[in-house]
Amino acid sequence: MQISSFEIFDMLARAQLTGQAIYIAAKLRIADYLKDGAKRVEELAVRTETHSDSLYRLLRMLASIGIFAEIKEEDDEQEQANHRIRRFKKSIDDLLYSIQTGENSFKHANGMEMYEYFEQKQKEAQIFNGAMASLTSSHASLILSMYNFSQFNTIIDIGGGQGTFLSSILKNNPNLHGILFDLPHAIESARKLYVKELANVKDNNVNEIFSRCKLIEGDFFKSIPSVGADGYIIKNVILNWDDESAAIILKNCLQAMKGTISSSSSNENKVNRRKTSPKLLIIDTTMPEGNEPFIGKFTDILMLALTHKGRIRTEAEFRRILNSCGFETTDIIRSHDSTDFLSIIEAVPSSN
Ligand SMILES: C[S@@+](CC[C@H](N)C(=O)[O-])C[C@H]1O[C@@H](n2cnc3c(N)ncnc32)[C@H](O)[C@@H]1O
């Protein structure tokens, strides 16, 4: 691969800046001051004897790469005076702990796993769900161009967040029905988003898309609803989990698919619909071999620090795990450029 001298300069500048910024945050012991919760940047500046606005700019840069997070508090008194409240939450301040133990520093710092935390902290959950939704909208049309979703009758988006991806599939495929399945906090966000969109857009389209969509709350470690879907999408979910947890999700998915197969064969004569055998689509970043610069190598470290031993997997790792859970990989469609190694891994229940 050919890298221009500008790209090398850019990479070096970023690496140097990031290293410096992390070093400064560590030297100022910012993470220690955030141990007990979010603080205003003004307060942090007093404690660290620094220039408030410059400290804010440094923390904003670190927040953009996942170290600390800025929280906006709508109802804070100062907000009334129209001041932006700059608060930072301890986030990946203890990567060293993860590197030393292989355990996630999020749990170490907060006493619970990230998704348990979101179930309890509505504001933080909203920030996370919103961030996932904007990430998803940025590559939804790319994914739609990579795969023919119109072959399905009903798709279920497992861990589908606020439903951003599902609604773009439904928008592009007017005959499709969809099911959004996620934890209660995400389903609640999806409902709120729908109500907000409906109010803002006043567009019959929103209503029409929503009328083809069902929202189901649940836990994919307990079960995945068997509701007659023939397309099972798991997008940007497996990377949050270790192999054991990923296997539970995939086996629950297989159970749901088997339920669909047996109910559709018993209804075969009654229902006059296009018959498709169920397919699983794992849509995820895949790790390329070699030393190429790739954003996923940073995401991988984020997964290590934030999630339950999650990781960015290679295609071979996905095939292996699918195989061990009773699936056969039937196709892998890739979009590989310097910023994205996005793969759609298509699998079906194995015949043996
Ligand atoms: C990284 S987000 C991906 C969201 C969405 N698929 C996307 O691509 O934008 C992972 C999703 O998994 C959901 N999730 C985590 N644990 C879950 C569980 N036990 N059962 C169902 N969903 C879960 C989260 O709420 C979150 O929406």
**Quick one: biggest sheet?**
7 strands, mixed
Beta-strand content bin: 15-25%
The CATH topology of the largest domain turns out to be: Rossmann fold
Mean pLDDT figure: 82
- The oligomeric state of the chains shown is single chain
Secondary structure layout:
Elements (H helix, E strand, L loop, with lengths): L4 H23 L2 H4 L5 E2 H8 L3 H12 L5 E3 L5 H4 L6 E3 L5 H7 L3 H6 L3 H7 L1 H25 L7 E5 L5 H9 L4 E6 L1 H18 L2 H8 L1 E5 L13 E5 L7 H24 L12 E7 L10 H11 L8 H10 L2 E10 L4 E9 L3
Parallel strand pairs: 4-5, 4-7, 5-6, 7-8
Antiparallel strand pairs: 1-3, 2-3, 8-10, 9-10
The structure holds S-adenosylmethionine (SAM).
S-adenosylmethionine (SAM) binds next to helix 9.
Task: Identify the notable features of this structure and list them briefly.
single chain, 352 residues, alpha/beta, Arc Repressor Mutant, subunit A, Rossmann fold, 2 domains, 3-stranded antiparallel β-sheet, 10 strands, 50% helix, globular, binds S-adenosylmethionine
Overall description:
The chain is of the alpha/beta class. It has two domains: 5-103, Orthogonal Bundle (Arc Repressor Mutant, subunit A); 115-349, Rossmann fold. It is 50% helix and 16% strand. It is built from 15 helices and ten strands. The chain has helices at 5-27, 30-33, 41-48, 52-63, 77-80, 95-101, 105-110, 114-120, 122-146, 164-172, 184-201, 204-211, 243-266, 296-306, 315-324, and strands spanning 39-40, 69-71, 87-89, 154-158, 177-182, 213-217, 231-235, 279-285, 327-336, 341-349. α9 runs parallel beside α10. The longest helix is centred in the middle third of the chain and has 25 residues, at 122-146. Residues 115, 132, 136, 159-161, 165, 182-183, 186, 219-221, 235-237, 240 line the site of S-adenosylmethionine. S-adenosylmethionine is lined by residues 115, 132, 136, 159-161, 165, 182-183, 186, 219-221, 235-237, 240.
